[in-house]
């Protein structure tokens, strides 16, 4: 399969790396382009098997599946640019939540999907949120899902639910990291241990808790019940958390929904190596 990537920023380069990691080289050729050539050169220096295309048009012409991995402000411009080069048999996948499926289907002659990745795919884990266009057959949907299964757990969602779902699966890693960092920093302040030790304990705790939830069949309540033994100290800690957390996530979701209404997310400075 030849997979093309338009945009090799944070998500584009992550997806490339994840597919390379999860797929035998005999089954996969990757071709990619990026607006600033340095970023692409940096990627191909690390993964020489990635072929370089000069433009989005060339990427499309040389691929069967095309991932559009640009920011919301750039997406429609690129779609217009590649439009004449897309044929019926192409799969065109936007990782951008701002461009609507029916907008793309109205413009493009090919099969169209939206797939919202998550940084967790660096570890070939976490969820890809998937929305397939109306023109896709059951077999074509399964085909795209089977590629996503190599790097993630694909979950089909309604486009109308995308905002809140991507807050959980795609923004979630950052929200969780903020909370875990706060916990570690408090341990340094209150317990006098080193930051390195606090970070290690928190990270391993998070890893183990994630496994309980995803591999060992624990529900949130099971963990709470097993750890917060009656009359014990965890229960006292939970009493502190409850009033402080009440409404915090509602406020967070209201805020992200409001921000998402303004599709034009301002550009941010990123280091050249966007893979981490
Ligand atoms: N970061 C995350 O965790 C997640 C992000 N997303 C979504 O993924 C999308 C991309 O985000 P992210 O990877 O973080 O953004 P980045 O800014 O890191 O990457 C976007 C890349 O697109 C390139 N680009 C822009 N225009 C063109 C063009 N015309 N031709 C070729 N390349 C182009 C940019 O090039 P240049 O080097 O010139 O800037 C840049 O490298 C966004 O819509 C975001 O919402 C979805 C889920 C999770
Ligand atoms: O913060 C953002 O805009 C992107 C979308 C999902 C995760 N990161």
From TrEMBL:
Domain Pyrroline-5-carboxylate reductase catalytic N-terminal intervals: 2-96
Compartments, as annotated in UniProt: Cytoplasm
Pathway it works in: Amino-acid biosynthesis; L-proline biosynthesis; L-proline from L-glutamate 5-semialdehyde: step 1/1
Domain (Pyrroline-5-carboxylate reductase dimerisation): residue spans on this chain: 160-261
Enzyme Commission number(s): 1.5.1.2
Catalyzed reaction equations: L-proline + NADP(+) = (S)-1-pyrroline-5-carboxylate + NADPH + 2 H(+); L-proline + NAD(+) = (S)-1-pyrroline-5-carboxylate + NADH + 2 H(+)
EC top class named in words: oxidoreductase
Database matches in Pfam families: F420_oxidored (PF03807), P5CR_dimer (PF14748)
InterPro entries attached to this UniProt entry: 6-PGluconate_DH-like_C_sf (IPR008927), NAD(P)-bd_dom_sf (IPR036291), P5C_Rdtase_cat_N (IPR028939), P5CR_dimer (IPR029036), Pyrroline-COOH_reductase (IPR000304)
This protein's UniProt keywords: Amino-acid biosynthesis, Cytoplasm, NADP, Oxidoreductase, Proline biosynthesis
Function, in words: Catalyzes the reduction of 1-pyrroline-5-carboxylate (PCA) to L-proline.
NCBIfam families found in the cross-reference section: PRK07680.1
Record family assignment: Belongs to the pyrroline-5-carboxylate reductase family.
HAMAP family: P5C_reductase
Protein name as catalogued: Pyrroline-5-carboxylate reductase
